[in-house]
Amino acid sequence: MFEQSGERCPNDRFLRLFNFPMGVEMKSLILNPSRKAFVCAVLAAAALGAGMNAVAGGPFGWRYAPQGYYYQTQQRDRAEVEKQARAALDHAVKGEVWKSPRGNTHIPLVNKDKLVIGNLWEEADLKAVEFGAYWTGRYGTKVELVSGGKVVGTLWLQ
Length: 158
Prior knowledge:
By secondary structure, this protein is α+β, with helices and mostly antiparallel strands. It has helices at 2-5, 12-17, 26-31, 33-55, 78-90, and strands at 62-64, 70-72, 93-94, 98-99, 105-110, 116-120, 130-137, 140-147, 150-157. 7% of the residues are buried.
């Protein structure tokens, strides 16, 4: 409409916001190569932002929610989680004990590939440990390791 009538763009506030020169016709605003590149970049960024929701889904059933929160869309069966956790603990060995600067004890649980798959905070027998609560996060399932009614560590499952 503006390019046919020769009128100036009425939305001066928008033009000031993006540093456009005042009194520019819409036709020259859109056809200017540098402005066209800017508009394409803005549209590409908007499309990328819209696509991030699909990317943030991840393989573990978490979806992105407003304000930086995630919510779980699937729940794993407890019997399956316990079976997988027991299999992981059967092949795990305790790593070197170390203490944090605050004095907390950490005993890494290492699998046969020498990867840390969990952590103990107290000495516990891996064969006698029970499984407490578990939750599925963005990077796998975390299982609480319970000994004597007390949580003594965490195991990470894929």
